[in-house]
Amino acid sequence: MVFKLNNQLLSRMAIGDGHGENSSYFDGWKAYDSDPYHHQNNPDGVIQMGLAENQLCFDKVEEWLKKNPAASICTPEGVAGFKDVAIFQDYHGLPQFRNAVAKFMGKVRGDRVSFDPDRIVMAGGATGAHETVAFCLADPGEALLVPTPYYPGFDRDLRWRTGVQLVPIECDSANNFKLRMEDLEAAYEMAKLNNIRVKGLLLTNPSNPLGTILDGDTLRNIAAFTNENNIHLICDEIYSATVFGKPDYVSIAEIVDEDRKSGRNGLNLDLIHIVYSLSKDMGFPGLRVGIVYSYNDVVVSCARKMSSFGLVSAQTQHMIGSMLSDAEFVEEFLGANRARLAERHGAFTGGLGRVGIRCLRSSNAGLFVWMDLRRLLKEQSVEAETALWRVIINEVKLNVSPGSSFHCSEPGWFRVCFANMDDETMEVALGRIRAFVAKHKEAMKPARKLCAQSSLKLSFSGRIYDEFIMSPRSPIPQSPLVRART
Ligand SMILES: Cc1ncc(COP(=O)(O)O)c(C=O)c1O
C-alpha cells in the first residue's frame, strides 16, 4: 500500500533501483554489520575484507596533527582562523588548498609532471567528481565505455542521476585482464552498430579491483584511439599513490606532458580528464575530498559551477591545505605508505600462496588482491561463484567481494581488501582461509585445467548493463552503501 502510494507520489528516480544497493557487493556488509569481528569481544565474527580503505599510515597523520595544532580551527592555536574559514567560501576553493592538492598530485607522480591549481575543481569525493564529469560530457542515453571488471559504484556514480549509460568492454584472465586494443575497438564498433552514442572511455588506473597499472604504451595507444575517434578519455587515478612495486606508475598526465613537450601536440586535450580524491592515497574517505582535473576549459568552468552541490567543507580544505603544503610530511607519508602496502601485500599473498591460492600475478598497486578461487567452484558459473561466496561469508566469516559484482565475465575471482585492518586481524583471516582450504582440498580442481574459458563467459556484446544484472538481489534493511563507498 505504502509502495503503491509512493509510486504515484514520487519520482521514478526516488522509487527506482538505479543506486545499485541491491547488489551482492553490498550484501556482504549486512553479514558484517550484524556480526562484526573483534579480537576480544567477538573473535568468531565476520572480518571485513570488502572495504578498500587504507589504514596503514594513520600514525603518521596523527603525529603531524599533534605537531601542527594550528591546522585545525578548533584548537586554541588555530581558533583565530575560525571566523575566516567559517564565513562564506565560494566554489573556487581556498587557494592554499588548490595549490597544495596540485603539488601533491605532482609528488604522487614522482614530480615527473605538474598540475595547474586553476584546474583543480572540488567535488564530494571521487563519487561526486565522476558524476560531475558525466554531467559535463554526456547527455542522458549517451554512453561511456568501461573495461571490466570495474568498481561497482560506477553504476551509481556515473549513471544514476545523469541518465548516462555504461558499456562494458570484457577483459579476461587470458592476459591478466589487461585491456586489449582490439577489444576496445570491437566494443566501440558494436555500440555504434547498436545506435549507442559513445562519448568516452572510463579507465581506472591503477585498477580497482585488479590492483594492476596500465603500461605507458597501452595508455598512449588508448589516448590515440580516443583522440582519433573524438571521444573523451576519463582516467580515475585515485589509487595512484598505492603503487608499491615495479613497474613504475604512468599517469595520463605524463602522456599529455610528453605529447606537449615533443611539440607534436597530437592529442586534443579538450578530451582528457582526471578524477582524483584523497580517499585511497591518504586514506581519508570520510573527508570527502574529490577532484575533477580537466584539460578542457569549458569542463573546468562548468564543473566548478556544479561543485556548489558537493563542495569540500572549508574546514577540511583548511586542514588539508596545511597538511599537504608540508613537503617533508608528504615525502615521508608517501614513502611509508608504499613500503607498508608492499609489506602487507607480500604477507597476505604469501600466506595465500602457502595454501595454494593464487592472486592475479601482475598486481603492484591498490588496497586489495584479486584472488583466484576458480579451483573451488563446483562449475564455472556465476551461480557457483555466488554459492561459494555465501560459504565464505557464512562459514569462513570473511566479507570478500565476488567478481560478478565487479561485472567480471569470468566466474571464480574475488576481491579481498588487506589494508583496512591490523596485522593480527590479517593473520586471523589467513588462518581461517587455511582451515577452509584444508577442509575442501579434495574438491579443488587441478590448476592446469583453468584458463580463460571464453565459451563460459557471459556475452555482453552490444548490451548495456541494466542495473547490477549479475547480482543476486536481496533486500538490505539498512543502507550499507552509506558506509560502503569503496
Ligand atoms: C575506482 C574508484 N573510484 C571512485 C571511488 C569513490 O571514491 P570516494 O570515496 O573518493 O568517493 C572508489 C571507491 O572505492 C573507487 O574504488
TrEMBL record:
It comes from Linum tenue. GO terms for molecular function: 1-aminocyclopropane-1-carboxylate synthase activity; pyridoxal phosphate binding; transaminase activity. Its cofactor is pyridoxal 5'-phosphate. InterPro entries: Aminotransferase_I/II_large, Ethylene_sulfur-biosynth, NHTrfase_class1_PyrdxlP-BS, PyrdxlP-dep_Trfase, PyrdxlP-dep_Trfase_major, PyrdxlP-dep_Trfase_small. Residues 47-433 form the Aminotransferase class I/classII large domain. It comes from the Eukaryota. This is 1-aminocyclopropane-1-carboxylate synthase. The keyword Protein biosynthesis does not apply. It catalyses: S-adenosyl-L-methionine = 1-aminocyclopropane-1-carboxylate + S-methyl-5'-thioadenosine + H(+). Belongs to the class-I pyridoxal-phosphate-dependent aminotransferase family. The lineage of its organism: Eukaryota, Viridiplantae, Streptophyta, Embryophyta, Tracheophyta. Pathway: Alkene biosynthesis; ethylene biosynthesis via S-adenosyl-L-methionine; ethylene from S-adenosyl-L-methionine: step 1/2.
